[in-house]
């Protein structure tokens, strides 16, 4: 009973922490650490919520979730030892359904993203050109400003529009390219993939949507920080403002606007008036907490009782 | 000889530039690389058709190929995705910054002027 209760508590703590973290601002002072915390919260929430249901259901075996499931599969005499079998059976079905559902939607959404990226890559190979001024970058002839990174398993591409070349100064262009190179280097696409998948799977969940938005912004901030190793803050900031205000098309999708403005302004303010980075001991504490959190759920799946 | 990807690109460029459907032989004549075997051109045309970028129609014993969509249509498809305007079916690209519109762009323009005056 203890494992089930602890796992349920853990799932609740993760959900509450995620909810608090969506509005936290200290994360902007240590984006990388915050991203790690988000990842561990996500994994732990999934394992803890399914684990709590399964641990309760499999409690009569007294072997923990993992070995309990194995015992269940080998004997299939479930529910014969306890009086509350209906409740436990319901818990078992709910736990397995939640686990299978989470895995299935993550895989399906991941596959959808990979398909869309593949199509994008094929089209790029037919349309994009190389530009001597920006070696290694794919250029698409399009008047509006656009710069992004198309992630690939083997090779990621940095793509910019023709319009970007005329919009930005040489310094600003360097800053943008350094930012995109940081995305490629730190594999931010892989960081974002599970959060994108989860948002696609549970589009009605406000916490999931906010979590995705928070992580996307943190990734941009992490890339900004990394870009500063190769360029100055000011061109990066002016590039951001120029980019955001160069209205791409008459009316972008309604509600996106407001958050886009505050996101751009948050990044610009960080660059122009850098806050003190989160102290090393605080970052270490969060790092330690994340590792502990990530390890806790699998351990609780193993312990009997 | 050029790589297959490079060749697909040149062939698409040729067909986009022409207004009429072309046969493999006609395409082959227009490619700069004269050493190209006619079968290579046919292979690439076939690949592009299977991927859905070309449509083909029978003309006597030969096939005539033409682009399934204009170059601009494909550019638009790429850029809509780049600007995060395709809804949930997008490729989850990491974009440098999102463009905003109207009064919101004004906030950014003002900040830009202030920053440049510093």
TrEMBL record, chain A:
UniProt entry tagged with the keyword Nucleotide-binding: no
rRNA-binding listed as a keyword: no
Cofactor(s) in the UniProt record: Zn(2+)
Peptidase M48 domain mapped to chain residues: 115-195
Regions crossing the membrane: 34-57, 92-111, 284-303
Cofactor note: Binds 1 zinc ion per subunit.
GO molecular function annotations of the record: metal ion binding; metalloendopeptidase activity
Keywords: Hydrolase, Membrane, Metal-binding, Metalloprotease, Protease, Transmembrane, Transmembrane helix, Zinc
Lineage: superkingdom: Bacteria
GO biological process, one term: proteolysis
Entry similarity comment: Belongs to the peptidase M48 family.
Name recorded for this polypeptide: Integral membrane protein
Species the sequence originates in: Planotetraspora mira
UniProtKB/TrEMBL annotation, chain B:
Family: Belongs to the BlaI transcriptional regulatory family.
Keywords tagged on the record: DNA-binding, Transcription, Transcription regulation
Pfam families the UniProt entry points to: Penicillinase_R
Entry keyword annotation includes DNA-binding: yes
Taxonomic placement: Bacteria, Bacillati, Actinomycetota, Actinomycetes, Streptosporangiales
Tagged with keyword Transcription: yes
GO terms classed as biological process: negative regulation of DNA-templated transcription
InterPro entries (alphabetical): BlaI_family, WH-like_DNA-bd_sf, WH_DNA-bd_sf
Molecular function per GO: DNA binding
Source species of the chain: Planotetraspora mira
Protein's UniProt name: Transcriptional regulator
């Amino acid at each position: 009973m203890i494992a089930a209760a602890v796992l349920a508590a853990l799932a609740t703590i993760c959900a509450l922490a995620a909810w608090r973290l969506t509005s936290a601002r200290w994360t902007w002072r240590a984006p990388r650490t915050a991203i790690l915390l988000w990842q561990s919260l996500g994994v732990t929430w999934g394992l803890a919520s399914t684990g709590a249901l399964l641990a309760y259901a499999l409690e009569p075996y007294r072997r923990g979730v993992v070995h309990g499931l194995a015992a269940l599969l080998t004997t299939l005499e479930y529910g014969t030892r306890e009086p509350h079998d209906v409740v436990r059976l319901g818990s078992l079905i709910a736990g397995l359904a939640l686990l299978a559902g989470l895995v299935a939607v993550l895989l399906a959404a991941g596959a959808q993203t990979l398909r869309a990226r593949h199509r994008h890559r094929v089209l790029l190979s037919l349309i994009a050109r190389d530009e001597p001024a920006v070696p290694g970058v794919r250029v698409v002839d399009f008047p509006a400003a656009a710069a992004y990174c198309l992630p690939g398993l083997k090779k990621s591409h940095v793509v910019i529009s023709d319009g970007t070349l005329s919009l930005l100064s040489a310094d600003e262009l360097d800053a943008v390219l350094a930012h995109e190179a940081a995305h490629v280097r730190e594999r931010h696409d892989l960081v974002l993939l599970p959060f994108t998948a989860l948002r696609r799977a549970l589009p009605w969940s406000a916490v999931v949507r906010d979590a995705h938005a928070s992580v996307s912004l943190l990734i941009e901030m992490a890339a900004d920080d990394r870009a500063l190793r190769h360029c100055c803050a000011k061109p990066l900031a002016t590039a951001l403002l120029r980019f955001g205000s160069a209205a791409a098309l008459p009316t972008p999708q309604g509600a996106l606007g407001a958050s886009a403005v505050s996101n751009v302004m948050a990044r610009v303010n960080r660059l122009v008036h850098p806050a003190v980075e989160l102290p090393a001991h605080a970052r270490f504490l969060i790092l330690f907490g994340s590792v502990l959190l990530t390890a806790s759920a699998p351990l609780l799946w193993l312990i009997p009782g | 000889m050029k790589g297959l990807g490079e060749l697909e690109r040149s062939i698409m460029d040729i067909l986009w530039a022409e207004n009429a459907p072309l046969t493999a032989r006609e395409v082959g004549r227009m490619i700069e690389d004269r050493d190209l075997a006619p079968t290579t051109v046919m292979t690439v045309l076939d690949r592009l058709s299977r991927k859905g970028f070309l449509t083909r129609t029978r003309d006597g014993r030969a096939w005539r190929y033409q682009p399934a969509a204009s170059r601009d249509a494909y550019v638009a498809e790429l850029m809509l995705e780049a600007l995060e305007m395709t809804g949930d079916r997008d490729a989850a690209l990491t974009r440098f910054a999102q463009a905003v519109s109207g009064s919101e762009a004004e906030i950014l323009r003002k900040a830009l002027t202030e920053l440049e005056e510093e």
